[in-house]
């Protein structure tokens, strides 16, 4: 990041990404420069008067995409070098309604009732690492604090993984870098993390204890309701919440069934087999149990409810 920031100051942020990032890491380049990162905003009543808070803004992709559509965007990032890149880009682009802040997302020096939208894209699951309390209690407290930062009728958007996503049953790794931990009861997952840390400390992204909590469709709803939010809508987001090309409302089986019939994948024998079981899951209302990623929109009740 320091090298990128240095070259960005000298040559310009666009040139640096195209010359140094795109050839070596096209996936990361799309993550930073992609135009679809904020497609979900079309589901929200954002206006030229909206105030937006982007927590864990990273390279600033979502913040910069929303800035032309809103009155004010505040991008909060905990890593200084990433925030510096955002500020370099903001200065070079001459964007006046975007403010970059380096801060801990759990200790925000911001006014209550100020924002119309708060964005948590890949952030909620990590909240348990910011303290020693029970991670679920910390997530609930964190969301309640965000509820207070929102004005009446304001929204929170959450991009996050599904705890029981289908690939976890086939050995997919979660944020611990281990297999099957997100499927285990929390206490067993915690013991497994400690055991793995002691016996193979070089394993990718090893955590000393299990504190990165993802949840199921129903548990996310319960968590948000317990934190004061209402009108919680959860979408299956494809191919993932960092590249939200398609959002499917999980409470509407007709839309899910129609989407399945449109997939060319089902032209093959394997595709037909998978499609058959996918349709059964939709009919049983269980598709929401296994999708990989969620886009979640929840509202704070108030005078501006729509």
Question: Can you walk through the features of this model?
Answer:
The chain is of the alpha/beta class. It is 38% helix and 20% strand. It contains 11 helices and 8 strands. The protein has helices spanning 2-11, 13-21, 26-33, 61-66, 80-93, 135-149, 186-199, 217-226, 253-262, 269-283, 287-290; strands at residues 51-55, 72-77, 98-102, 115-121, 150-161, 230-240, 243-249, 293-299. The protein has an 8-stranded mixed β-sheet with strand order 3-2-1-4-5-8-6-7. β4, α6 and β5 (150-161) form a beta-alpha-beta unit. It is globular, with a radius of gyration of 20 Å. The mean pLDDT is 90.
User: What is the fold named in CATH at topology level of the largest domain?
Assistant: Rossmann fold
Q: Return the average pLDDT rounded to an integer.
A: 90
Beta-strand content bin = 15-25%
CATH homologous superfamily name of the largest domain? Vaccinia Virus protein VP39
Structural class: alpha/beta
The residue ranges in which pLDDT falls below 50 over 5 or more consecutive positions are none
Brief synopsis:
The protein is an alpha/beta fold. It contains eleven helices and eight strands.
Task: Show the helix and strand layout.
Layout (H helix, E strand, L loop, with lengths): L1 H10 L1 H9 L4 H8 L17 E5 L5 H6 L5 E6 L2 H14 L4 E5 L12 E7 L13 H15 E12 L24 H14 L17 H10 L3 E11 L2 E7 L3 H10 L6 H15 L3 H4 L2 E7 L7
Parallel strand pairs: 1-2, 1-4, 2-3, 4-5
Antiparallel strand pairs: 5-8, 6-7, 6-8
């Amino acid at each position: 990041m320091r090298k990128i920031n240095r070259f960005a100051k000298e040559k310009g942020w666009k040139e640096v990404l195209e010359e140094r990032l795109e050839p070596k890491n096209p996936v990361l380049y799309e993550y930073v420069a992609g135009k679809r990162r904020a497609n979900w905003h079309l589901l929200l009543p954002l206006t030229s008067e909206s105030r937006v808070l982007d927590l864990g803004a990273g390279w600033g992709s979502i913040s910069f995409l929303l800035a032309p559509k809103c009155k004010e965007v505040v991008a909060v990032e905990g890593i200084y070098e990433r925030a510096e890149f955002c500020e370099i880009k903001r200065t070079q682009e001459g964007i006046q309604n975007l403010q970059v802040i380096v801060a801990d997302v759990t200790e925000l020096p911001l006014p209550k009732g100020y924002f119309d939208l708060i964005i948590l894209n890949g952030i909620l699951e990590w909240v348990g690492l910011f303290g020693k309390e029970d991670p679920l209690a910390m997530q609930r407290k964190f969301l309640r604090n965000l509820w207070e930062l929102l004005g009446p009728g304001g929204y929170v958007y959450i991009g996050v993984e599904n705890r029981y996503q289908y690939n976890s049953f086939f050995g997919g790794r979660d944020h611990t870098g281990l297999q099957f931990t997100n499927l285990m009861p929390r206490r067993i997952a915690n013991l497994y993390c400690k055991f793995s840390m002691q016996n193979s400390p070089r394993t990718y992204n090893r955590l000393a204890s299990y504190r990165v909590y993802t949840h199921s469709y129903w548990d996310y709803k319960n968590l948000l309701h317990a934190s004061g939010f209402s009108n919680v809508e959860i979408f299956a987001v494809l191919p993932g919440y960092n590249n939200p090309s398609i959002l499917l409302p999980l409470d509407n089986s007709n839309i899910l069934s129609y989407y399945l019939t449109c997939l060319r994948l089902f032209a093959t024998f394997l595709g037909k087999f998978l499609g058959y079981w996918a349709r059964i899951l939709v009919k049983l209302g269980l598709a929401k149990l296994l999708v990989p990623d969620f886009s979640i929109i929840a509202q704070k009740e108030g005078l501006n409810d729509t």
